[in-house]
Amino acid sequence: MSTPEQRAAFVERLGGALTSAGLARLPSRIFAAVLVDEDGRMTAAEIGETLGVSPAAVSGAVKYLDGVGMVRRERERGSRRDVFVVDDEAWHDTLLQADAIYAPMIAALDRGIEDLPADDPAHHRLEVSREFMRFLLDELHGINDRWLARRKELHLDE
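Predicted structure:
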């Protein structure tokens, strides 16, 4: 069993890595804290106490994390308190939301391509950008298929 100090160190390491990757600092630390929590479930008060932040700061950050699918909000039975949960598939589910993320960008690129003459240099850049995003989406779907097979190989479905 890990110690509170080991868990705190993990939260700072993963939180820092996620922050370096572009996620805001507090949502990064909150995600890491809930991820490493024994049951993957924490109330806003527990998060605030663990990270030494105010309830208001926790509220905004978990709202963001819930919106992008990294945590989900549940109502604690027999209580009015919310509990925030990280599922085993949090990374998988978040990354597979790429369709929702990239579709509006692809639509905007399509419109830009339609609006620009074919001999405009920007037209070509927009086409390259659109095709890269389409390629990325296709690859993500293939990654999902390969991940499901890999989970079975590793016996992670048990």
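Summary: The chain has two domains: 4-87, 96-153.
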